[in-house]
Amino acid sequence: MSAVRIAGGQGFYGDAPGPIADLLTEKPDYVVLEALAELTLAILNKDRRRDETLGYTRDLPLYLMQTLPAVLEGKTKVITNAGGINPRAAAQMVTKAAERFGMRGFTVATVVGDDVLGQPDLLPSDFPSPESLAFANAYLGARPVVEALEQGADLVITGRVADAALFLAPLVHEHGWAWDDWDKLASGMLVGHLLECSGQVTGGNHAGRWWEVPEPWRFGFPLADVAADGSATIFKPEVSGGRVDYDTVRQQLLYEVHDPSAYLTPDVVVDMTTLHFDDLGDDRVRVSGVTGKPATDTYKLVGAVEEGYASDLSIAFGWPDAPAKARAAADIARKRIAEAGLALDEWHTELFGVNALHGPAVNLDEVGQPSEVVLRMAWRGADRDAVDQVPRHVIPLGLSAPPSGFSSAGRGRPKSSALMRIHTALIDKAAVDQGVRVHVEKI
Amino acid sequence: MARVKLAEIAFARSGDKGDRSDLGVFAPAGPYVEQVYEVLKAEVTADRVKELFGEFVLGEVTRYEVDNIHALKFVMEQALGGGGPRSLRADNLGKAFGGAVQRLEIEVPDELLAALGPRPQPAPDPYATSTWVTR
Question: Which of A108, A103, A57 is nearest to A82 (CA)?
Fold first, then answer.
């Protein structure tokens, strides 16, 4: 098998489906759509509790409209974890749409079994109770996706399969890599890690010379040609903007990684400290020399529990003495709320234009006299009514505090939202795997 | 030796997992990548990063040296006000922490600074005169 060409067509729920068209001009063998951030499943579980036919990311149809024509022509295959908390419902949506538009001759597979909340016996004893959890899912690996591909799937819809494992699966399937060939598995997983955040490897969020990234209004999403030995070339569509070079690729390599010599994934422990990047120019970077160590016998388990409610409000102050006006207004607001006797658990103020983003890292002596600052006040409480009453006591500041400019309160009262605390644990692989199922359906 | 901000010689990107923030600090590609990386290793220590972030980062800061890509990796515990979905901060994911770490003051040999030249900066409105097709 010559090199396998994989495209990273989505980096999160809400990413742009537009770049898919450019990706398809490079004729990828597989388009992988990564839709699940750490907390996306909480949103999707809410959807499912309201309506049993939901629970997948709702922009999946948009992505399928872009990719299915190529799938139907046998030119590419699609792998996605957009099934979220309800991959079977996503497959049913596809089946219905296919019927309606007269599409047939393709095979859809779903992978289920990552939803641990549906099998509460599996939850570790020190994990929050099933009743309190908004979701609890194990990060599955590439194996069930490979199984789906072996059964002829053209479209694989999963739930919480680890982002990078979605990309490893077609490489294992096409190159026939063994499940204990650790260096190759690590190489494939590493390519997946580079591609999983779409535009972040092709010059997006570039902290270096970002203004030199060409045509960011037509951002190119990434592709990789992965050889049977695991070495790969990362590139972008010729017709797109964006940039692939040593700087852009390195930033994505370390993104959300902890110990780079032991990046834990479901299928292999990846060592990034042995690899070599070769900047080939023309927006191509070759990666080789990735090594791997045996996988652990646990999966990562992530869940979340609601923890109070929060709301916020912003007021802008102009020169002169804008920071002092803002700080005074914050103190006045706080005093009014204390006098109103509202039960809050946390009060947070920050000054945009001074140090809202960088906090203590800012040397206040260097700030000087900003032309304007925005005061943002945020608060949290267990009692939603108390949280929702706060703006009533802050809005009067418009006439009864230091002179201000814009106030977000003038645009309607802010709505409170539920906060969540994320819980993680390790969970026995063998126990989870017993419940993993691959369904394959010909359409 | 000159005392300058880290931004003069390096760039950084941050990420998040739960209440943990992670930072990659990079020596930019170019003829001086090795020398800049050596300065980063000597100057940008875990203790100094922890001190810079003050009350923003309540937990431990761990540093990993990634020699093969001229980069340092920092992992900061209890750094996001309880984690993205629990935090009251506007930047609940610490997306701007990559910029914050570039405020760190470090010692850089004068010769290296001279060789690197002034920090590259964008035009005030980078695309104002763009033809919209720049390749």
Answer: A57
A74 at interface of B, judged by CB pairs closer than 8 A: no
Angle, alpha carbons B108-B113-B115 (nearest 5°):
140
Asked if the C-beta of A132 comes within 8 angstroms of chain B's C-beta atoms, the answer is no
Is residue A168 within 8 A of residue A189, CB to CB? The reply is yes
Which two structure tokens, joined as six digits, stand for A99? 């019927």
Size of interface A-B (CB pairs under 8 A): 157
Domain that residue B92 falls in: 2-115
What count of other Cβ atoms lies within 10 Å of the Cβ of residue A128? 17
Residue A240 in contact with residue A19, Cβ under 8 Å? Answer: yes
> The tokens of A267 are what?
């299928």
443 residues of chain A, pLDDT tens digit each: 699 999 999 999 999 899 999 999 999 999 999 999 988 999 999 999 999 999 999 999 999 999 999 999 999 999 999 999 999 999 999 999 999 989 899 999 999 999 999 899 999 999 999 999 999 999 999 999 999 999 999 999 999 999 999 999 999 999 999 999 999 999 999 999 999 999 999 999 999 999 999 999 999 999 999 999 999 999 999 999 999 999 999 999 999 999 999 999 999 999 999 999 999 999 999 999 999 999 999 999 999 999 999 999 999 999 999 999 999 999 999 999 999 999 999 999 999 999 999 999 999 999 999 999 999 999 999 999 999 999 999 988 888 889 888 888 766 778 899 999 999 999 999 999 999 999 999 99
Cβ contacts of B20 on chain A, cutoff 8 Å: 258
CA distance A137 to A39: 11
What distance in Å separates the CA atoms of residue A232 and residue A277, rounded to the nearest whole number? 10
Q: Is A391 on the interface with B (CB under 8 A)?
A: no
Residue B59 near chain A (CB below 8 Å): no
Domain(s) of CATH 3.30.70: residues in chain A: 304-422
Instruction: Please state the pTM of the whole predicted model.
Output: 0.96
Name the CATH topology of A304-422. Alpha-Beta Plaits (3.30.70)
B56 CB neighbours in chain A (<8 A) are 359-361
Question: What is the number of alpha carbons within 13 Å of residue A13 lying toward its C-beta?
Answer: 17
Q: Please tell me if residue B85 touches chain A, with a CB cutoff of 8 Å.
A: yes
| Residues belonging to chain B | 135
Q: Which residues of A touch B85 (CB under 8 A)?
A: 39, 42, 304, 419-422
Among the listed residues A87, A155, A359, the one whose alpha carbon sits nearest the alpha carbon of residue B97: A359
Torsion sign over Cα A265, A268, A274, A278: negative
Question: Is any Cβ of chain A less than 8 angstroms from the Cβ of B26?
Answer: yes
Q: Residue A302 corresponds to which amino acid?
A: V
Number of domains in chain B: 1
What are φ and ψ of residue B28, in 5° steps?
Answer: -65, 145
CA distances from A16 to A9, A59, A242 (A): 9, 10, 15
**B121 inside domain:** no
Q: A42 to chain B: which residues are within 8 Å by CB?
A: 85
CA distances from A161 to A32, A165, A389, A434 (A): 12, 7, 41, 16
Q: Is A281 exposed, middle or buried (0-12, 13-18, 19+ CB in 10 A)?
A: exposed
